[in-house]
Automatic annotation (TrEMBL), chain A:
Belongs to the CENP-N/CHL4 family. GO terms for biological process: CENP-A containing chromatin assembly; chromosome segregation. The keyword Nucleus applies. Keywords: Centromere, Chromosome, Nucleus. It is found in: Chromosome, Centromere; Nucleus. The lineage of its organism: Eukaryota, Metazoa, Chordata, Craniata, Vertebrata. It comes from Oreotrochilus melanogaster. The keyword Nucleus applies. One of its GO terms (cellular component) is nucleoplasm. This is CENPN protein. Coiled coil: none annotated.
From TrEMBL, chain B:
The keyword Lipid metabolism does not apply. It comes from Oreotrochilus melanogaster. The keyword Nucleus applies. This is Centromere protein M. Signal peptide: none annotated.
Length: 346, 130
């Protein structure tokens, strides 16, 4: 077995948390049950990885099999990577039947004709997701297995989720290959990025709980049974106002959990407006400024701002449109005569 | 009765008992709370300021997060002739003792303590500060 393959397998196993190693190796299926029984999973990870490498040596593992283990690890720990969402367009309306083998063949052919040194692996999952792992090399060097890009394609949709890692210069190549293999016209990057792959999927596939406008205001009495109101001697004077704020908030955000995003970034290219007497920035040039909101769970925290009394409800549409518009990166320009609306997409 | 600001909503006017004591809470971590209190003071009838208004400053356990100018609070107490109390709600014991203090003040303001009026008591509180 190749030295580099052995090292790669060793490092991949070291990455896996100790209590997950056995299940991941089972999913991998490269080592037999008998071999797995022989490994002592209670020793330190260094030793576990050495044992695994030895067994792989016996089974003559090559880089392709090692790559599959990497895919399994990244599928389970998908939220460690940063994902960008890409959307493909096609001109016509004919929906072609998706052929998986044809797809894989085309991707390989596209990538290999452009760049000889690449390692390409595929793995399909239940939710129609096809995981594509690409390790990039150069015309003169072998593929670097540690700098891989992942693309997740859902065959019934025009969306691809790409985690590019370091070699962004190879992105156009990957995008081109995807377009050709899926018979679409072109592909563009959406302004939507985050760590939680499932949340990104929820946003573009519209799987989050949307609130449809209802004309009859829903009575909220049944929600007011809060344990803190157990003492009936405490009377809250502003209960009506609080209920109104909650209702408005729910109309905007819906009832269910919000998709998980970590940032929202707004690039401002607007003119600075101040008191004309103060003569600050008199020149009518755009004042460039970037506002970034970050949080472990941005949308949930935005949802709780108004009920916590930290912001007025309803919140600014710039914040609440994130899920409908499926974007968390915005460019805001001044209203111009040609363009409608206060903000334009790039 | 708890309220986030004054004036109190008109809907509750019929159900409200007589108000004996008004305590304005100012969180030193929040400039917004000071502004809300200053705005709400305009809605209080002048007769309350004869010993029935107190300022309670909370969050003093975390002076490193202080966003409010303590001088402003002191001036507020002077301008409105009302005592300023300090407490830290996050500590159980202080919370309980503050509640007990407020209850005793309320008893006096409601006239349940013979010989002590709200006005005389508040003057006592203020001269103790100085």
């Amino acid at each position: 077995m190749d030295e580099t393959v052995a090292e790669y397998i060793r490092r991949t196993v070291l990455k896996i948390p100790r209590d997950e190693i056995k299940t991941m190796l089972q999913k991998w299926g490269f080592l037999s049950e008998a071999q797995l029984q022989n490994i002592n999973f209670h020793q330190i990870k260094e030793n576990i990885s050495q044992e695994v490498v030895q067994l792989c040596e016996e089974n003559c593992a090559d880089i392709k099999q090692a790559a599959v283990l990497d895919i399994i690890y990244n599928h389970i720990h998908q939220n460690k990577r940063m994902w960008s969402v890409y959307q493909m367009n096609k001109k016509g309306e004919e929906t072609e039947i998706f052929d998986l083998t044809d797809f894989k063949k085309k991707i390989k052919r596209q990538l290999r004709t452009a760049l000889k040194n690449v390692t390409i692996n595929f793995r399909e999952y239940e939710d129609n997701a096809i995981w594509i792992r690409v390790a990039w090399g150069t015309p003169y060097t072998k593929p670097n297995q540690y700098k891989t890009s992942y693309a997740v394609y859902h065959s019934q949709t025009p969306y691809v989720f790409i985690s590019a890692s370091v070699f962004r210069s190879n992105l156009p190549l990957l995008c081109q290959a995807l377009v050709v293999a899926t018979s679409y016209q072109d592909i563009r990057e959406m302004e939507l990025r985050g760590h939680s792959l499932n949340s990104l999927k929820d946003i573009v596939f519209r799987r989050y709980s949307q609130n449809f406008q209802t004309h009859c205001p829903r009575p909220l009495q049944e929600r007011n049974v809060a344990p803190e109101n157990a003492d009936l001697r405490i009377i809250r004077e502003n209960k009506m106002e609080k209920e109104k704020i909650e209702r408005v908030n729910w109309e905007v955000f819906g009832h269910g959990p919000q998709p998980k995003l970590e940032f929202a970034q707004y690039k401002l290219e607007t003119i600075f407006r101040s008191d004309p007497k103060m003569h600050i920035l008199d020149k009518k040039e755009p004042f460039r400024c970037v506002v970034k909101f970050s949080s472990p769970d941005l949308l949930e925290s935005l949802k709780s701002l108004a009920p916590a009394g930290m912001a007025d409800a309803p919140l600014s549409p710039l914040l609440t449109c994130i899920t409908h518009k499926a974007r968390n990166y915005f460019k805001i320009r001044d209203k111009k005569d040609l363009l409608p609306g206060g903000f334009t997409s790039p | 009765h708890l309220a986030t600001s004054l004036p109190l909503p008109a809907e509750g006017d019929q159900l409200r008992p007589r108000i004996d004591l008004i305590v304005f809470l100012i969180d030193i971590k929040s400039k917004h709370s000071l502004k809300t209190v200053e705005a709400s003071l305009a809605y209080v009838d002048a007769s309350f300021f004869l010993g029935k208004v107190y300022f309670l400053v909370t969050g003093v356990g975390r002076m490193n997060c202080c966003s409010v100018n303590m001088n402003d609070i002191g001036k507020l107490g002077e301008v409105y002739c009302s005592p300023v109390l300090f407490c830290e709600l996050e500590l159980d014991s202080i919370r309980v003792s503050t509640a007990q203090r407020l209850l005793r003040i309320l008893k006096i303001c409601a006239g349940h303590v013979p010989g002590v009026s709200a006005l005389s008591f508040s003057l006592l509180m203020k001269s103790a500060d100085n």
